[in-house]
Amino acid sequence: MWFKNLLIYRITSGNLTTSELESAFAEHVLRDCLQMELQSRGWILPKESQSRFVHNYNEHLLIAFGVKKKLLPTTVVNQYAKDRIMVMEQHQGYKPGKKQIRDIKEAVLIELTPRAFVQQHTTYAWIDTEKKLLIIDTANLKKAEELIELLIKTVHGIRIAPFTTKISPSAVMTRWLSGDEPPATFTIDRDCELQSASNEKSIVRYAHHVLEAEETSRHIRAGKKVIRLALTWADKISFVLQDNLQIRRIAPLDIVKESTDISESADDIFDSDFVLMTGEFNQLLPDLIHALGGEN
Q: Is the pTM of this model over 0.90?
């Protein structure tokens, strides 16, 4: 249970406890799509072997947001509609008008929707009740917004805001690639992306490339800023920091993985991974926020 991406939010009001969340989530469980629904959203069990909506360890809570979506590609609808339009044209001897075509497409959609395949997607979130943080495992802002929207609807009085720092990640990353040394707990890896401030938004990308200060400084002097940089924290966790404070491509390194006992059951590994992940992130995030000038 290691998150691959982090979107960080500040819980500005409202208290979240396991018991309150359990009772509130039970009222908004993910259900099957109704016959004519294209999508259904709700809470699901974060751990299949347990019957609770909240997996908790001390002040750390793990929740899971589920979406069921019917797969009905536009190309399929258009093909069915095209066939029916051709039949109508043959019967009436002239091409259908715009209103007839629109009515045919609506009829096809109504007919096909109940027969569409359903795909389920799960997004996990970690709530640190002591630090008042909501951390969502996704790189997709829309998915995070959907989770937050349902959480606000589910839990009375909760308010959530994006987490921001006093200095923008882009400014700090640009300094580091201009020659400034990052804090001792961070090392710069071999991936980065620089973007110009001009209207053209030209981009230079480095992948698996040793980042020489002289070379990257040349791009920065030309007006580019760093918008993505691969880093390693404390020789334990590698990740990519984005200019909007998103943290992506998180990978625990061998020094962390070695603490997991391979003889444990899947349930035990799930529990130990969550404990280990929250413990490591609770050290990584303060170091990163401090490097960015603190919380704004």
A: no
